[in-house]
Amino acid sequence: MTQQDLASLQQDTEFLDRLTEIRRDIHRHPETAFEEVRTGNIVAEFLQNLGMEIHRGLGKTGVVGTLKGKRPGQRVIGLRADMDALFIEEKTGLDYASTVPGKMHACGHDGHTTMLLGAAEKLAKDPDFAGTIHFIFQPAEEGVGGARVMIQDGLFEQFPCDAVYGVHNAPKEPLGFTSTRPGSFMAAGDTWEVRFKGTGGHGAMPHLGTDPTIAAGQFIASIGSLISRKVPSNDAAVVSVGHISGGDYNSPNIIPAEVTIRGTARSYRPEVRDTLEAKIELLAKSCAAGQDVEATVIYTRRYPPLINTPENTEIAVKAASTAFGETMVDPKAPPLGGSEDFSFMLEKVPGAYVMIGNGDGPGSAMVHTPMFNFNDALIPYGIAYWLNVVDLELGEAAAA
């Protein structure tokens, strides 16, 4: 699909109005992780009406639709969209704002789902490609790893793929501006918790007990040195403290017996991730030993780094460049500090992930905020991108 084809698609008001209503209907009825029953029903019914085979239940509420091309071919690709919402109270004031208190589509997954449905319709009406497409609609991307659960439930055993692709909208970026990079594109996102435990005691007689606050303070003051002294200078990593608790607000004269610190660790290479896990524990136990207290460390690996395969990244870049123009694509974008559970899929199957601009006009808001809204003008851009990925993988472009 060329830039001219995209322009024609943008003029197809009947098609886009219908998709926009689907997007806004999903937006009105947000469903959080593993609750996406209504959304899954919309997706399944839409795909079934296109004549596709449907499978439900992977990752509890996941939906997979399969479409075979009318030309013979053995190659199989997966196209993935996420469906879940967030626990945020919407404050947009839109006439299609969330009707569910405390929940909203604050990350654009309603739009991601709609863009892939639109591409599925176009492809089903004219499946002029060689091979098979699995349309993967995934639950629970936000923080609980729905991709991992779908894989554990047998996603790639039941639906083997030679390559898999994902898309996310990019707030504050010009509409359609696409960014990606080969290799590490998004960070591993881990959480850690350290509990320092002593005896506590009277604030006037600290020598009669053991004080976990001193160990906790030393730990917090030293944790930044893990990046500057334990991670190579040409690597990027971030360790942040997000929670500290100990003692009672009403008892400032009591040394607490326990102090808990929690935070996150982000990195882009498995080796750096290993280093952070090992050194956080070593630092905590060293600080504890110096104060005769105990340290218990819990390090939880949540999302691995998202690593794009170079060959598939080239396909993604060409797909976007053909539809949007070369000046609208950054093929070597800086790595992003956020995490994305599509990384679990890329651990199993080669593929690529891109960000496509959601628009940077007045009123645009960041994801994960009460004012965010997916830009419906992005729908045809997402469809054009998906159609070009299919053409490059399975269509005339692949055969050329």
From TrEMBL:
Q: Which UniProt keywords apply?
A: Hydrolase, Manganese, Metal-binding
- Give the signal peptide, or none: none
Family annotation (InterPro entries): Amidohydrolase, Bact_exopeptidase_dim_dom, Peptidase_M20, Peptidase_M20_dimer
Peptidase M20 dimerisation domain mapped to chain residues: 191-285
Query: What would be one Pfam family of this protein?
Result: M20_dimer
Give the source's domain of life in one word.
Bacteria
Amino-acid positions noted as binding Mn(2+) in the UniProt annotation, renumbered to this chain: C107, H109, E142, H168, H368
Q: What is this protein called?
A: Hippurate hydrolase
What is the species of this protein?
A: Roseibium suaedae
